[in-house]
Design brief:
The chain has 2 helices and 11 strands. By secondary structure, it is α+β, with helices and mostly antiparallel strands. The chain has one domain. A hairpin with a 2-residue loop joins strand 2 and strand 3. The chain is globular and about 45 Å long.
């Protein structure tokens, strides 16, 4: 204010902010609802690894443990595009640390505003640190994100990822 009057820049700034608020420009992004299915035992797949998903995260939301053939609870997420990040345990539903590996969905999974979606994780839709034939190797950026999310598993650095106990 100058001498009790508003200057033109202040008025324009106020109109800009009010205009954005009126148009929804300052509102939160729209939400969506996702769940994750542990589909590793899918009978339609030629290979059915017996993975228990011990930990899982999508778009920054913790989906927790997902047993073989189970589906997580449907949780609210911010619409967007991301990989499903996981720690999985081969033939060990107790998720003992020595039997776990960091894995991720093979593709970035998208969910749009207002959508309800179940993301199935199975043999063709995952990647890992020591992949068998037909499974993509996990990129370092995803491996490092998993290590940051769940340091309690003590996974080796990316350069040594194939030396994790479950890989041997």
């Amino acid at each position: 204010m100058t001498n009790g009057r508003r200057t033109l820049p202040m008025v324009l700034a106020a109109c800009f902010v009010l205009g954005l608020a009126a148009c929804g420009g300052l509102e939160e992004r729209e939400r969506a609802y996702a769940s994750i299915k542990n589909d590793f035992n899918n009978p339609e797949m030629p290979k059915r690894p017996q993975w228990t998903i011990c930990k899982s995260s999508y778009l920054g939301v913790d989906f927790g443990r997902i047993d073989l053939d189970a589906t997580s609870a449907e949780l609210e997420v911010e619409a967007g595009l991301d990989y499903v990040l996981m720690v999985a345990s081969w033939e060990d539903p107790t998720c003992s640390i020595e039997n776990t590996l960091p894995i991720a969905s093979r593709n970035e999974e998208e969910i749009v505003p207002g959508q309800r979606r179940t993301i199935s994780i199975n043999m063709p839709n995952h990647q890992g640190p020591c992949p068998p034939e037909g499974v993509a190797p996990i990129p370092q950026v995803l491996y490092d994100r998993i290590l940051a999310l769940w340091p309690e598993f003590g996974f080796l650095p990316y350069e040594q990822r194939t030396q994790n106990p479950e890989c041997l």
